[in-house]
Amino acid sequence: MAKGKSLPLYLKYDRDSFERLFKYLYPDLLPFAQAILFDNDEAKDIVQDVFCHIWDRRKSIVINTNIETYLFKSVRNACLNRLSHIKITDEHADRVREAWFFSNNIDPYENEEVLKLIDNISEQFPERMKRVFSLRKDFGLSYEEIAQEMGISINSVKTHLKRAFKQIRESLLSPSASLSIVS
């Protein structure tokens, strides 16, 4: 089977020919997916899912292009959908963390260890990030108020806070974090 040739999926096709197709194109599709996702395991899952999708729908699927083009487009689209999902999940998680952190439900006595760790972590931030974080955490200023106070854009405020929360999260989750109680 030469690359770039159409494979007539609408014809009778058995498991052996499907496996040959998989073995033939998988080595090209995997690095393609890895280049988009930068995650080897996710890339493997995506490529396998695309092949499973075709196999599951082999009797009804209609492909109007050659199979190689179809598979590359399917893998690309699946990768982009995964990245979109990751971005939405990440943004949602950031909002939840920030809501928890700035809620009035935090009892500093119950979370004293966590707050000390966060203070220690934030001391390591670059000066501008540290100031944005402090204005938000210590003074409860809005993004707009912080932007006006510091003479920067609201997007810069968001970026600094996102990076701050990422560093805090990574530090708190690292094995070296000496945290024994998290409420």
How is this structure best summarized?
By secondary structure, the chain is mostly helical.
Secondary structure topology:
Blueprint: H1 15-37, H2 40-56, H3 67-102, H4 112-123, H5 127-137, H6 143-150, H7 154-173
Task: Work out the oligomeric state of the chains in this entry.
Answer: single chain
State Rg. 25 Å
Structural category: mainly alpha
N/C terminus separation: 60 Å
Low-confidence runs: 1-7, 103-110, 179-183
- Mean pLDDT across all amino acids: 76
Topology, number of strands = 0
Largest β-sheet summary = none
> How does the overall form come out from the CA principal axes?
elongated
Could you explain the architecture of this structure?
The protein is built from seven helices and no strands. By secondary structure, the chain is mostly helical. The longest helix is centred in the middle third of the chain and has 36 residues. The protein starts with 14 loop residues before the first helix and ends in a 10-residue tail after the last helix.
Features:
single chain, mainly alpha, disordered N terminus, disordered C terminus
